[in-house]
Specification:
The protein has 508 residues and is of the alpha/beta class. The protein is built from 17 helices and 14 strands. Strands 6, 7, 8, 9, 10, 11, 12, 13 and 14 form a nine-stranded mixed sheet that branches.
């Protein structure tokens, strides 16, 4: 489990209302953009819904609402920019007038659409229209609260404002659901603003994703600990624990660090966003963001996550989970070196004769069951790497004790499986020095174990009868009296000039 560390003022993202001018301006811009995000989000959703229903009569006014919302953002960025403040170019009466004009457009068109929805029996559109109306009213209250002369008395003498020409931008349409979005994904949305959470929930759910929303960083960390998510959309500025601290804890937690995190930020927070990306964030979405941009960024993050997961899976298959973890944490640990290891070989007795009368598909199906059961048995062991060659299994362990325990369980459980096919299993173990590490050419390398220890373990396995586990002299010596074994006897193995002394394992 992750240790929860309360957020402190060390991230550079203000947790409380700032007091100096640049931060006060950033706070004002942030507060004003929030209801605009709601206006844009719900107007885009309503455009999609009415287009899908074949009701074009709603679209012109919905687009006018969206354009007014876009122009609100432009006004905020234009007239509350630090450079304009420093130059003393702010005329609050002009700003109030322009903002109110756009707000009147939004509320006016919203009321027209509400009437049309009621007349045409589309009452299910009314809740979202009411949310647009509420966001517009909230924006007006913020204007009356934040944009008052007292906030700007220390910022220089106002000069006449330059003409502001609203840009009538045609809203970008989100693309149809692509193969990527149809592939689905589980997304966690973290934002302290209920309206933002609702818009993202509605938007992403319509695109085919499974969406969970939470209002705080602490709650997000708890859910990430307990659940499985493919992507996190994380607001940067939140009370108690800000987005940067949440990101830091996610990227410091091994089982969470591969989840992509998409930061949600205002334009004023770009410096903090850069720090987030350095901490491991995948990307960022500046608020407010068009639906098409949201869809593209989410699809890109999830596509990269799927590719990364596949590569990790394939690499884990080739290296083994233990070696893969080592390679990620310390690539140099895979260099060639000499080690003391216990090598286990297991082989199916009678497989060649049995497979002669079976189709290749039947033989593969049986082997897959055999390998799956073997993996389940050593899943919690200390095995460093396993390899399959035909019906033969090789496992390399750091110590004899764990290797012999696994050998005994393989004999019992795989023996029971193979008995149903009229087959058996023979197992041999030997302990000694090996050279291990990455071996191969420039383009193809594999983690290998080389040395007489490996050859000797293989020779002992070939001499083991069905249901028998044979321990070499060095393996028996390492175990001492911790296992029960039979009398020692000698094997004359192929390629060996001297006989091998072995003992059959009886019990552990």
């Amino acid at each position: 489990m992750m240790k929860r560390r309360p957020s402190k003022a060390k991230t550079g993202v203000p947790a409380q209302r700032p007091t100096h001018v640049p931060d006060r301006l950033a706070h004002i811009r942030h507060e004003l953009r929030t209801p605009v995000v709601h206006v844009l989000g719900y107007s885009e959703l309503l455009q999609e819904i009415t287009e899908e229903r074949g009701q074009p009569q709603f679209l012109p006014d919905l687009k006018r609402i969206q354009i007014a919302g876009q122009n609100l953002v432009l006004l905020i960025n234009e007239f509350l920019a630090p450079a304009r403040i420093e130059a003393g170019e702010i005329d609050l009466r002009y700003v109030h007038s322009e903002l109110r004009t756009l707000l009147n457009h939004i509320t006016g068109y919203c009321e027209i659409i509400q009437e049309l929805a009621a007349e045409t029996g589309q009452e299910d559109l009314l809740p979202d229209l009411q949310k647009i109306h509420l966001a517009s009213n909230n924006f007006l209250k913020l204007v009356e609260t934040l944009l008052v002369p007292a906030n700007f008395t220390a910022l220089g003498k106002p000069k006449p404002a330059a003409n502001f020409a609203p840009q009538l931008v045609e809203p970008a349409k989100p693309s149809k659901r692509s193969d990527v979005s149809r592939a689905g994904g589980s997304i966690l949305v973290v934002d302290d603003d209920a309206g933002n959470r609702d818009v993202l929930l509605r938007r992403l759910s319509r695109q085919g994703y499974q969406v969970t929303t939470v209002e705080s960083g602490l709650r997000a960390l708890d859910l990430l600990d307990k659940g499985k998510f493919d992507l996190v959309l994380l607001d940067l500025i939140m009370p108690e624990m800000d987005g940067m601290e949440v990101l830091r804890q996610v990227k410091a937690t091994p089982h969470l660090q591969n989840i992509p995190v998409l930061m949600l930020s205002a334009l004023d927070e770009l410096d903090a966003v850069v720090r987030c990306i350095k901490l491991g964030a995948e990307d960022h979405l500046p608020k407010p963001f068009p639906a098409a941009i949201l869809q593209a960024r989410v699809e890109s993050c999830l596509a990269n996550k799927r590719m990364s997961d596949q590569l990790r899976k394939y690499t884990g298959w080739l290296f083994g989970k233990s070696l893969f973890s080592r390679a990620v944490a310390a690539p140099g640990s895979l260099a060639l070196r000499r080690q003391e290891r216990t090598v286990l070989f297991a082989d199916i007795r009678g497989f060649t004769h049995w497979s002669e009368s079976r189709t290749p598909e039947a033989a593969v199906a049986m082997l897959n069951r055999y390998f799956e059961d073997a993996e389940r048995i050593w899943g919690s062991s200390s095995v460093i790497k396993t390899e399959y060659t035909g019906d033969e299994i090789m496992g390399v362990f750091p110590a004899a004790r764990d290797a012999v325990r696994i050998a005994h369980e393989l004999r019992v459980e795989l023996g029971q499986l193979l008995k149903g096919f009229g087959l058996g299993i023979g197992i041999g173990l030997h302990t000694g020095p090996v050279t291990e590490g990455l071996m191969g050419g420039t383009d193809v390398k594999a983690y290998r174990f080389v040395g007489d220890t490996v050859n000797t373990a293989s020779r002992i396995c070939k001499e083991a009868q069905a249901g028998q586990v044979l321990l070499s002299e060095t393996t028996s010596a390492e175990l001492g009296s911790s296992v029960k074994s039979g009398q020692v006897f000698e094997l004359f193995a192929k390629g060996k000039t001297e006989p091998l002394k072995v003992r059959p394992l009886i019990a552990i």
